[in-house]
Structure prediction request, 319 residues.
Amino acid sequence: MARAEEPTLESITKIVQAQLFVDDPEGRGGLVEVHEGYKFVQCRHLPHQTVITCEAAGTRGQPWMRHVLTKERRAALKEMGFAADRRTGNFIRRWDPPPEPKLLMAFMVHALDVGYGSTGQENELRYGWFPAADCPARVASGHPYGGAVVLSGLKVKNVAEGCRLEGREVEDDDPLPPSPPTPDDAPGLMSQQYKSIAEAVDWVALGTGPEHHIAIFSWGELYIQCLKAEEPSMQCEVVSADINPRLKPVLTPAVGRKLKKLGFLEPGYSLNYAQVFPLKAGDATKAIADTLAQAAQQGFGDYVFLPLEVERHTSKPAR
Prediction:
């Protein structure tokens, strides 16, 4: 399994040619994937066959894709020749014969864009081999990249075997405890929470070196987390009910619309509501803290009156 680092059009074309148009001497299947966050389009090829099979992420493998796979976007995928696959829940198109490598790669990128929408983040390319089989192993439902074919060498904890991808079983969770009453000094409490959020946001923004600074703001089971991403930006996420179904009574579709107005992307790119904040402006951290405080107050209802817990962590970036 490999990722293309700063690929050029020429290098991408060579990758697609090698993985999908030439039989592997070891008899493995070849695969190329383009993804943005957890949204993906994969194309694969088996040895001694001329057909190339392309798949786009579906809601069975990743239920949170329902936020981005609107009726219009499903129709756009259909216009591109994709059809819903009953066995996997993904969208599938088979090419026989396939277009030339450059056109096939352009097709994959376009499918990712029209099918799932663009967040403005750069697409990533991943490619490699998998054990040749008509029904290759996939990432199990309910996990990041659920429904995607697993490449050899990729460490995946939850793998589904067989031709049919089973949907995630939803357990009957105990309901959340009742929300606390509105305190007498609610404005003072909100002011203190804002101060704590602003201090932690400043700490995340000032992080330097190879380690990432991470701040997690928790109100019981509801949380917002921020990570200083690639310079100069910070990615923050608001928990979604796709992560914790117990939160459905709080994180309603109406709340999702409020978070969207605040600039957060619906789950799809991430499992949570996500937003990337630029850090170029001098008052950038204040604007971030303002947005996070509004997200908590508009999204968490009276649960925002629970005691705020702020955690600070550092982690080394993945290699």
Notes: The first helix runs from residue 9 to 20.
